[in-house]
Design brief:
Layout: E1 11-22, E2 31-36, E3 38-42, E4 52-53, E5 64-69, E6 72-77, E7 84-86, E8 89-90, E9 97-98, E10 104-107, E11 112-117, E12 143-146, E13 151-154, E14 157-160, H1 163-174, E15 180-181, H2 182-189, H3 205-219, E16 226-229, E17 233-236
Parallel strand pairs: 3-4
Antiparallel strand pairs: 1-2, 1-11, 3-5, 5-6, 6-9, 7-8, 7-10, 10-11, 12-13, 13-14, 15-17, 16-17
């Protein structure tokens, strides 16, 4: 889907893109190409249609704008009612926020989640997040992590972490609301493995995906809200860190 050009904007080649992790009406993994000098993201109305329109009622009609400034993508929150976050940090209205690849942008407290990248992919990425159609809430039960004991307390139940579970959860938690690349995960969680020519431990994606699956199943799928961006990495979503 190509960006709709503002009448006053200048049409450019694709210089960056947004991948939808969560945000109706787009399918998870949809690539939104940034091809204009200015791209407005918000919610459509009878009187106005932004370049990319999301249907959630908590998204403002003009929520954010991404401008190309000196070969960089710069995000501005346009005074949205329910706010914008970049990597878990609240964006101040009308202030410039230069974007970097792997930045995670949340609109309206996570109602819509986008992954920014300068690395344009011509194909749709595959995501494994929570369903974009389900209600978005914090986990219903209290969660306490005792790092020194390597255990979690979920709904009053103590659950011991295995070594690999501990290493992955700690890594994602330390980088909460940011995409952690696959290579970084392999190096942190499997340091004992022999490395290949690329310097990355020899760990298959099946092993990594299986570890994430075990964590979701063992601790409850809503305890650690982990989204997978296939081919890139994983994101742990936290609103209270």
């Amino acid at each position: 889907m190509a960006a709709v050009q503002h009448s006053e904007g200048t049409k450019l080649d694709t210089f960056a893109c947004l991948y939808v992790i969560r945000g109706e009406p787009f399918r998870s993994g949809t690539c939104l190409n940034l091809t204009a000098a200015e791209t407005v993201i918000g919610r459509a109305s009878n009187l106005y249609s932004p370049d990319f329109a999301f249907s959630n009622a908590f998204i403002s009609r003009k929520h954010i704008v991404i401008r190309k400034e000196e070969e960089r993508a710069v995000l501005y929150d346009l005074g949205s009612m329910h706010g914008t976050e970049i990597n878990g940090v609240i964006v101040e209205p009308n202030q410039p926020y230069p974007l970097k690849s792997f930045d995670i942008i949340k609109l309206a407290k996570g109602m819509t989640v986008l992954h920014f990248s300068y690395l344009f992919a011509d194909q749709t990425l595959e995501f494994e997040p929570l369903s974009i159609t389900q209600r978005w809430d914090e986990p219903s039960g209290p969660l306490t992590i005792h790092w020194e004991k390597r255990e979690c307390v979920v709904d009053g139940k103590r659950i011991a972490m295995s070594e690999k579970e501990f290493l992955l959860i700690q890594l994602l938690y330390d980088h909460a609301n940011r995409l952690v690349p696959i290579a970084e995960i392999k190096q942190a969680v499997w340091p004992e493995r022999s490395v290949g020519e690329d310097g990355i431990p020899d760990v298959t994606m099946d092993e990594l995906n299986a570890l994430v699956y075990r964590i979701r199943k063992k601790y409850g799928k809503d305890t650690f809200l982990i989204s997978a961006v296939r081919g890139s990495g994983y994101v742990l979503e936290l609103h209270n860190k």
